[in-house]
Every structure is written in C-alpha cells, then in structure tokens.
Amino acid sequence: MSDAAMATAPAGGAHEAQAGADLHHHDEEHTEGIYTIAPLVVSLGLAVAATSLVLRSPLIFLGMGIFSYGAWLWLREYLPTRADEHPVVSTHAPFAGIEVRKVGIWLFLMTEMMVFSSLVSTYVRYRLEAGADWVPAASHQDLFLGSLNTFILLSSSFTLATALDAARHGKQQRMMYGLVITLMCGVAFLLIKAVEWYEMIYLEPEPFTPWGSVEGTTFYVTTGTHGGHVLGGVIVLGYLIYKGANRGWGPTNSNSIEYFGLYWHFVDIIWALPVFPFFYLI
Amino acid sequence: MAVCLLLVLGAVAPASLSLSGGISSPTLPAEGCTCHGGGKPGAVTPHLDGVPSQYEPSKVYQLNISIEGGPPIGGVNAGGFNLAATGGAFLSLNETTQVFPSGEIGHTTAGNNQRAWVVQWTAPAETDKVVDFRLLTNAVDGSASPDAPDQWNRATAQSMGPDASAPTTSTELIDGPTAFVLLAMAMLAIVVYALIPKGWSKEDFYQTIWAYLTTTDHKRVGMLYIATGFAFFFLGGIMALLIRVQLAFPENDFLSPSQYNQAFTMHGTTMIFLAAMPIIFGFANFVVPLQIGARDLAFPRINALGYWLLPAGASIIYLGLFTGGTGDVGWTGYPPYSESPTSQSPGTQLWVMGQVLLGISSTLTGVNFIATIMTLRAPGVTLLRVPLFTWSILITVFLLLLAIPVLTIALVMLLLDRLIGTAFFDPSKGGDPVLWQHLFWYFGHPEVYIVIIPAFGVVSEVTATMARRPIFGYRSMVYALVGLGALSYIVWGHHMFTSGANPLFRFLVMFTTMLVAVPTGIKIFNWLATLTGGALVLNTALLFSVGFIATFTMGGISGMFLASIPIDLHFHDTYFVVAHFHYVLFGGTIFAFLSAVYYWYPKITGHFLNERIGLVHFLGTFVGFNVTFYPMHELGLLGMPRRTAFYVAGRGLEFDNLLATVGAFILAVSSALLAVNIVYSRRNRVQAKDDAWESGWSLEWVTSSPPPEHSFLKIPTLLVQSEVEPLPEEQGSPEANPAIGSGLTAAALPKRSRRRTKGSP
User: Which of A170, B214, B469, B704 has a Cα-to-Cα distance from B534 of 20 to 30 A?
Assistant: First the structure.
C-alpha cells in the first residue's frame, strides 16, 4: 500500500464538479479524485435486504431504506442543477465518436439479453419436451388484457422518444408531457399485470399458480422478471421527471434521456418479441 | 507454526479414537455401523416410530424400529440396530433384543435375522427433560464377506417433557475447528497490525480508512480487491486444511459428514468467487488502466459498487455459520439434492443469495472493463498494441458479460424453488434437474476460463519482461486468447457426460473440448520460445511463472484425459478430477497471480518484495502443491470418490491421503511466507524505480511507482518505431533499431516508444 498516496488523499466529500456524467475527466488538469460513500451504502442496503428476504425478516424494509438512501447519495450531485454535459467520447475504433456511457448501456443490455435468453430457453426446453401435454398460459388468461398491455408498452416507447426530441429542441412542456405519459404507461402496464395475476391465482376455479406446474413457473417468473424491469424503468422515470420539473434537461444535456430510452425500448422489445407471443399467443 | 502444530495434533487425536467397532461400539462414526466391512453409509432408511413429541412422566411407550431398503436378505443374518436415549430407560420385550450395561438397547444373536424390532421405553420421571434418541441400523446380506454390500444409516428423534423449554436448535457451527479458524483470524489481524506504519496517529488511521471506504480510484479499489481476495484465499485455505485433516486417516471423525459437506462447499465457493476472482479483478483494476494509458475506468463509481458488493455477498454466504450451518450442497449446488427436504437449512438459501450479489458485482465489473478497454485507450494504443494482460482481461470480461447473468438467473430460479416452491428443477412438478446442470455449466465452463485466462496474461507479461525480450508471437497469442474465449461457450457439456445427455451432444462437446488444446498449446510454446534464448532474470516472479507453465501443462494434459468420454465415465467424480482442476486452478491461476504479486508489487507500493523469502515461498509452494495434488491422481485411479467424508481402510488409499495432507500443510506454511515477506519488505525497503524491472514493455512502467493520484501526470502517447522521429540526442545511437524483426510491431513497441513518449515525465 502506498503511503504517499494515502498521505495526500483528501478525507472524502470532494465530488466531481461536473454534473450529469458518471465519468472521470480524461484530459483535464485537475487531479482531485472522486470520493463517495454511496457505493458502500448501496451495497450495505442490498446486503441487508437480500439477507432479510431469504430469512423472511421484516428488516427487509430497513435494507430497502438504506439502499434508497445510498441511491439518493449517489444521484444528489446530479440532481439540483442543469449543467452542460461534457461527454467523454471514445477515440478508438470500433466505437470512435460514441460516448462511453452509451457503450456502457449497450453492454449492460447484452447482459440483460442473457438473463432473458436463460428464461426463454428454459421455457422452450420444457415446452418442447411436453409437446401436446403442455397447458399454455394463454388458456388461462384474457388475450384482451395482454394485447392492451402490448399496446400500452409500445406507445410508451413512442412517448419517450417524443420527450427526448422535445428536450433536444428545448421544449420543456412537451418534454414533461412525454415523460409523464411514459411513466403513466409503465404504471398502467404494471397495474394490468397485477390484475391479471390476481385473477389467475385467486379467482379462477382451478388456480394457475407459480408453484403448481412448470407452465405456471415459467409464465410467472419470465413475465415477473420483465415486470421487474418495467418497475425499475418506472423508478428511473420518476428521477427523470423530478429533474425535468426543475428544468434539469435541455438541448445540451439530454443524453441521459436517450440512454434511458435504450433501456426502455429494450424492455419493450423483450415484451413484444419473446414474452407476449410465447405466453399469450401460442 | 503453532497453528500447524495444533492442526496436526487435532488431526491425530480424534483418529486414535475412531476404531471401527461393532454396532454397539462406544465410538461410532456418525453414520452408524462399519462392523461388516464394505458397503456404504446412508443407503438405507431407518425408522423409529412411537417416540412421543411430548412424553408423560414415567409412562411406558412402545417403540417400533425398522429398516427400509438394503441388500437382499440371504444367509443367516439380515440386520441389526442400536438405540440410545439421553433419558428414561429401555426394556427388552423378547429374546431378539437386549439392554446393554450402558443403558442402550440393541439386537441379540437371536434378533440378527430380521429388520424390525419392538422395544419398550419408560419416560423419565422429571417433567422438564429433553430426551434425544439416536438410532443406528445396518442391513446386511448375510454373506459375512468383507466385500458384502452392507448398508447402514442413523436416525434421531426427540421427546420433550411437558415443562421442558423448547430446545435450542443445535447449531452446526464448524465447532471443533472453530478454534483454528479463530487462530487464523488472529494471524490475519496480526499481519494487518504489522502493516500499519509506525508513528501513525488515530487521525491518520481514520483518515486512511475513510479514504478507502469512499474511494473510486481504480488503484485503491484494486488494492481493496487484492487484499480481500488474499484474505479469502487464507480462509478458503483453512477450509482445505479441515478437509485434508479429515481425510488424513481412514474413517476419521474430525468432522461430521455435515461439517465436511459445509467445509468443501465453502472451500469451493470461497476459492472461486471470493479469492480467485477478486485477486484477478484487483490486478485488472490496478494494471489495466495503466497499461492502456487511461486515468481511471470508464465508470469509477460503478467500479466501487462492484467492489463493495463483494464483501456484502461474502458476508451473506458466511452468515450461514450463525443460522445452523452454511451451504452444504457443493459449489455446483446440483438439484435435486439442493432442493431436497434434507437440504432446507437457511445456510444454503443464504449461500445462493450471496452468490446472486456476487453475480451482480461481476456483471457490473464486466461492463465497466469492456467499456474502458474499448474506449479509453491513450492515443496510439490500438487494439493490436494492447499488452497481453489487458487482452486477457478483455477476453475474460467478455466471458463474464455473457456467462455471469446466466448463473445469476439460474440461482434466482433455485432460490424461488426453495423459497416459494416453483417448479424449475423439481421433477414432481414437471421440472428437470438436468436443466440446472446445463444452465450452471453454461456459466461454469466460461467461469473456469475467466479464472485462467488472466493467468495467461500475467505469465505473458512476466516471461517477456524477465527474459528481456518481447513476447514471442504476440499476434498468435491474441488470436489464441480469442479462440479460447469462443471455445469456452461450446464445451460445457463435458461436465455432464454421465448425466444421460444425448450421445451426439456428448460427442460434439468431446470434440470441441479437445480443440481447446490447440490455442492452449500455442500459448505454452510461445512462452517457451520467449524464454529460450532470452537473457533470463531468475527472480521470484519468473520462478512462479515457470512453475505455472510446468504445473498448468500437467493440468491441461489430465484435462485431455477427462475430455474423452470413455475415460471420463470412469474418472467422473473421483479424485482424478480434483487433481485435474487443482492443477489448473492452483497450479495455474494461483501460481500466475503469485507471480503477479512479485511482478507488480514494486509498481503498487514503490518497493520490492524480498527475493530470499520469495525463493523459499516459491519452493515451498511448488513442492507443497505437488505433494498435495499429485497423489490425488492415484487416488482417483483407485476410485476414491469426491465429496465423501470417509474412506475405508485396507483399500490402498491411506498413504496417498496422508501424503496429500502433509503437502497441504507445507502449502499452508509457505503461503504464510507471503505475509511475512510483505511485512519484512515494508520494514526493509528496497526502493523501486519507475521501470522497476528495467525492461518493462508496457505503459504502466512509464508512470511513477507508486503512480500519482490520477495515474499519469500527463496522458502518454504510444508511438510505433516508424512513427518516431529520432530525438536530437539519440540521433546516430546504435539502439535505433535493435534486434526487433521488421515484422514485429506491437508487443515490442511500448518499450521503444517509452523513451520517446510525448509528455511522459
């Protein structure tokens, strides 16, 4: 361990001056490091919540509280003001000219792809083996609600793109409409989902449950994982709207909306391509 | 030393007591009787019916004892039993049973030809007692030959008085060995204490702690990773010693079977996820940004989050120690065992959950490193001028990116099966346990390469630097790495040759697995070619790398044995497999990263590690390693199964097992020398220059040792020789074009360019 480095280290609290980018300064002269306790707090919260979940302890709320506090610590330096973004751009092929954050989001989406691939291949494996014996989830549910959800989710991608366009052109009100409608679509999707699940588990004469059969298990866990992603997106949308309400987005710093959009469209496509047809149509 | 002495004593003492005796012997192995020679424990189900959950004082109860399963009955004898209780009194009802002087009850000669008995038990007069019953049974085929397929097992029951307080659940802390673990912790604390510089005030101390808790600097996060990794390497080593002590003697009872299961599960999980991967990511964190000329990773905060999820996940995994036992399902966690009613301890749940957090951590790390290496290279650092260690990390993180999410989601499925009873791997609901094997090994095989490919990178750096010449065949090394990465995704089925998979599938993965030898062979011959004719500097770093080449080659060759289906069917789940993967993981990854410790230590701290202690460290590790793991090949050939707490005497297994245990202690002592070396070198500093080895080929040797806060005072530019105009003072210098062939560009460049780097200090 380096004594020299320790001795010169500031005792924490110095934040990156530049808002809106989780990036270091590639070419700047100042040598002040980023010090933040947020990652530690977020991990602690996750650890407490995960342990409580497994041990079925009410401490899970404490864990979620710590996690939220950590997330707030993480985001607060980006929240208050609207600052121009100074995107760190890749100088090398194959991503020359592309912002590093965008590369990061695409890589993250690759990992998400693997998550859904695992779930869908599990489904395909059981379905092919069962053949004609398979009782499709579609036979238990209302195709109308499923189609409605597809419509809502696809529309929300459009409204988010509208919001980004508005932000790029500095049209504050249109952007806010776009973001809020997107959020409402996400919430509506989750509510319809909840109604659907409730009906199938509790109201049907022969309940279709996650713990009854592989048909139920694959249906609930795959759509549940997707729903979890929608929920995560809704929470991030809340942050985008909060910052937008404080006039936080403008023509010079709206890249964050674009990158969130990549995630949101991905969740949308996952619904439209494997999940909806596999569980509702066939 | 003292710890080792204690461990040896602890190993010898219980062994002297564990004489194999008859079914009424006072010292019985935990599973029950071994009085009839061969056979195996746990294959029959004993039943003890009639024990009341709450007894009435002094009431007489009739207890029915029976054995389910077992070999077909023939000859004169069929089975026997022994029943003990911590309270009350037994009474024999007929001539088939007898009460022993100890108060236990068992069968008589007349009752030896049956598998069910009836006895009476009088409850104690006290109203507040908790009575534990322990039933041992064995089922025999009556042939009385030493190889008879006899089977035995035990059962327990409990009866409480009306006023007894609820019994505390017996905690399966690793109790006997707890003292060793605590001693080990104390040693770790002493090392940490010894590392605190003299003359530090409390403020210095708190300030440093706070700086490390809040840091996002890749160098500090790297140091945290490395320190955490080695701490868990130490803990996993303690687990290994527990296993080896248990196996030192036949039928040893140092650990109970349950403790043994916990010990090997935690050993595997700790070594892979909490030791090897953190050490790798520690060095990757420290070195990769320096090698590509970046100030930090692409997402420093996310990097810190990735690190902090590691202690979080690790504590959840180890929390099981305090909830009645840690995970005990093996590091692979195969269902149906991992979902069976016998494996419902919260420890296994916590073990799964902790790994989910580690999976998130690795995923974030993967994203971060790819983004960094692909986008933040300094001017001039094109992909084919990136040093081989960074290349190996790039391939590794690609594997992480595509493999770890699969494990994470499979673990979530397992957790859901256990927590809310979903049907993923539960055959009674239509699920398929083999699906877990596919998902697990789809992750698991790339995981093996995740821990070995960075080792290739380290060895490439060390051999080139210490041979004072560029790496031989840089491009072929890069292509071999890429090839290995691609192959790693299509070989997972070789872990499942015995699972009844489709023969065509098995044949294909056998073929692809054998293909792996090609890129690996390219690498080994390139290292040898680099060393041949180089001006070798035989220091500890190079010794570990050369040791790596030797042991890894052996591990690779035994891997080719296992890749062949007919041989694997025979070797599956024997110690041959254990020997193989320790030769590649310990002899491979750990040797390479010990080499990395000696190689990059001067860059990280600014001073060298002591070479004399280093030499002893290497020799002890190399000898200890081979003495430990070479005999396991033989044990595997003799058919000794993995994950089994006992083996019987007289099958030729004793000597090799004892030898392996002795080797494990040599390994433990020599590993402790690393800590000694760090403390010693810190007190007797030998300062290192920026280019500590005076022949470094890559950009990390351009910056100071240790590097400044933001890694480089000014970002360097890497130039190839043809791009460099000779500086005025170098004109006409004879070294303008040294012995670098005209075809060779990339690998040789950093050194040449270093002296002509624009803006380097």
Answer: B704
User: How many Å lie between the alpha carbon of B299 and the closest alpha carbon of chain A?
Assistant: 6
Q: Are strands B40-41 and B130-139 parallel, antiparallel or unpaired?
A: unpaired
**Residues of chain B contacting residue A216, judged by C-beta atoms under 8 Å apart:** 422-423
The residue with greater pLDDT, B385 or A247, is B385
**Of B534, B686, B681, nearest in space to B614 by CA:** B681
Confirm whether B449 is a catalytic residue.
yes
CB contact under 8 A, B357 and A46: yes
For B156, which DSSP code? Answer: E
Residue B75 pLDDT class (50, 70, 90 cuts): low
- Residue A28: partners with Cβ closer than 8 Å, 6 or more residues away: none
What span, in angstroms and rounded, lies between the C-alpha atoms of B713 and B710? Answer: 7
Contact indicator for A266, A233 with CB cutoff of 8 Å: no
- Give the dihedral sign, CA A54/A58/A60/A66: negative
Distance from CA of B92 to the nearest CA of A (A): 45
Q: For an interface test with B, which of A51, A77, A109, A226 has the most B Cβ atoms less than 10 Å from its Cβ?
A: A51
Strands B60-68 and B45-49 turn out to be antiparallel
Q: Which of B366, B375, B403 sits opposite A95 (nearest CB)?
A: B375
Contact A153, A276 (CB under 8 A): no
What is the three-class DSSP state of B704? coil
Greater pLDDT, B590 or B694: B590
ipTM of this complex > 0.85?
Answer: yes
Residues of A in contact with B404 (CB under 8 A): 111
**Domain A85-281 belongs to what topology?**
Four Helix Bundle (Hemerythrin (Met), subunit A) (1.20.120)
Distances in Å between the alpha carbon of B702 and those of B153, B222, B376, B709? 66, 19, 17, 15
- What pLDDT digit, counting tens, does each position of B492-529 carry? 999 999 988 888 999 999 999 999 999 999 999 999 99
Mean pLDDT check: name the lowest of A110-114, B449-453, B681-685.
B681-685
Task: Choose the weakest-confidence range: A57-71, A207-221, B61-75.
Answer: B61-75
B424–A212: do the CB atoms touch at under 8 Å?
A: no
Nearest to A50 among B299, B316, B323 (CB): B316
Helices (H), B532-574: 540-563, 565-571
Q: For residue B715, give the chain A residue with the closest CA.
A: A27
What are the pLDDT digits (tens) for B569-582? 999 999 999 999 99
Q: Which of B301, B376, B422 sits opposite A221 (nearest CB)?
A: B422
Residue among B240, B402, B465, B431 nearest B331 (CA): B240
Say whether B423 and A217 touch across the interface (CB within 8 A). yes
B523 among known catalytic residues: yes
pLDDT band at B389 (very low <50, low <70, confident <90, very high): very high
Task: Report in angstroms the alpha-carbon separations of B555 from A2, B269, B272.
Answer: 37, 20, 17
Average pLDDT score over residue span B454-459: 97
Active-site residue flag, B642: yes
- At B98, list the tokens: 């007898």
| ω into B300 cis (within 30 of 0) | no
Distance from CA of B473 to the nearest CA of A (A): 24
pTM of structure: 0.79
- The candidate with the shortest Cα–Cα distance to B552, out of B477, B449, B471, is B449
Q: Which residues pair with B48 in a beta bridge?
A: B65
- Select the highest-mean-pLDDT range: B145-154, B373-382, B548-557, B714-723: B548-557
Q: What is the CA radius of gyration of chain A?
A: 22
Q: Residue B34 in contact with residue B648, Cβ under 8 Å?
A: yes
In the annotation, is B447 catalytic? Answer: yes
Question: Six-digit token pair at B341?
Answer: 């009613």
Q: Where are the domains of chain A?
A: 35-80, 85-281
Is B207 in Cβ contact with A46 (below 8 Å)? no
